[in-house]
Amino acid sequence: MPKTLWTPSQTFRCNSNMYAFMEWVNQKYQYVFKDYQDLWQWSIEQEEQFWESILMYFDLSYTGVYSTIKSKARNMYETSWFEGIQLNYAAHVFKNDFKNRPAIVFQGEGKEYQEFSVEELKSKTSKVTNYLREKGVKKGDRVCAMLPNSPEAIIAFLATNAIGAVWTSCSPDFGTKSIIDRFSQIEPKIFFATNAYQYNGRTYNKIEEIKLIQEAIPCIQNTVLIDYIPEIENELTHDKWEEIMKRQASEILFENVDFNHPIWILYSSGTTGKPKAITHSVGGILIEHFKALSLHQNVKKGDTFFWYSTTGWMMWNYANSALLVGGTVAIYDGSPVYPSTDTLWSFAEKGSITHFGAGASFFNLCMKEDMNFLDREKIRNIESFGSTGSPLAPECFDWFYEKVNPNLWLISLSGGTDICSGFVGGNPFGAIYKGEIQCRMLGVNLHAYSEEGQSVVEELGEMVIENAIPSMPIYFWNDKNNERYKSSYFNMYPGKWRHGDWIKITNRNSLIIYGRSDATLNRGGIRIGTSEIYSATESVEEVLDSLVVCIDRSDGTQIMPLFVQLQGNIVLDAKLKSKIKKAIKTQFSARHIPDKIYSIPDIPYTISGKKMEAPVKKILSGVSIEKSASIDAMKNPKALYYFVNFNW
Question: Which domains does the chain possess?
């Protein structure tokens, strides 16, 4: 049994939102639940009663009457929820009383610390709402954004949602092709863009990229430019954010939409071609985020919730939902380690943050630098720390309790862009075991499946979800007959969601995730598609073919090697490596650049013509070639043997 690092006190347990919810459920339905496992079992066995209880307990505002809670669909991906009612996400944000607390606290590279009241947030949102309506944006229209993690991004999203339009965003550090590949699929009417952004001490001008996006997506009718970095000249055709902000504020007229109406479009990493345009529903996100933020992360009115992210990662959408439960959302824009690894920690102190989240790679870096916070009172006052993006190294669990606070609640969260939430996460009733995630979240009937498709405990298996969840995608945008949706999750186990993670469920009902079981690259918590790297690498004339994988090491670090097959007798020298890296960065982002580049004689393929990323990853991780691949199903079997006993 692993080391127990933390056990909640009776006071912590009884003061938690989860405990209050359990007591409410017991009273309303005459149950006698006493612990989390009782509550979880009920939530999956009586799922309709459970999701209706979330709707009622959090007092969601809606019009209409629902005829059913969950539709009797033939397939999980066709499930709809609470048909017959209409509601609005942004309206739930602004019905909260923040009692003289800020709604947003913000800081960024080159930006002073700022606080925004809910009145200021509402005023600015109303101005953008009026602008969008004047430009003819209606319910169901798409609004896209290439913005930094700034208050303007939250304002633009809330304004879009308030009128029933559909939001989508990319971070400005995405390459131009990445953004065009995403936005061109959904035909947006309005484009919010930043003139520049700052990262790691450098300023990046985005004016030329904006021009290219405007030209590539002619359905964009209006571009709103935010002068995030002052004194950058441009000759763009655009409207000015600052001019919109000079307008008179007014009451926001919230457009109620069907429960299953789209709220936003997020994107997959692009492993198998163009990124999938994953579309979530307004109602599904509302009840999922109330559940996740309030019950599993214990965010309360008066708390300040921070999760380091960009506008291109689902954690941005997730973190903003702290506003739903009356929490202040804290946002930081820029490098988390510039000018030092203390940057986010100092921001946490300044903003009096009570819940601090980031990618596991950030915390691993802090551990390696042996950072110690035991004498910093405001850090010790942080109630919970959250980690996601990749598995948190067991050694990092120790670091938290030895160098940050021996009494903190450490929440390891795992889910995905697919549901814009977690499948597994925090439980304020449960102990923290070294290297383990506390629980399967309420309403999530999750199992580890053996190769035979059987649910197993204390064995490594495929993560499979056996029931529909309201925040699962309503569809992928422009996905005819749900073909990409079905192939993404339901091909391996018909009727059940195969998520693509290797997982173990312990006999204590805690969980351990061992990494992705598919080919998606997970770089420091950011999902990267192999097809994007191939596109850039193979645009270099000297490169014939390529293959990339990301290896999770036992010490919690990662290495992402790129293997290239070169034309003719060309040699991979420093100059060519530099050329390849430049192509990748220019077309996509610095995050796409591999750690190492190696020349190999041939790229392994299946008979059907698919690159064999997963087998290569297994072999490089120490799995035998026999257990990694079916040699008979290969087009060129000799190519795989290059990776056996590979010399790093």
Answer: 4-95+261-516 (3.40.50.12780), 102-255 (3.40.50.980), 529-643 (3.30.300.30)
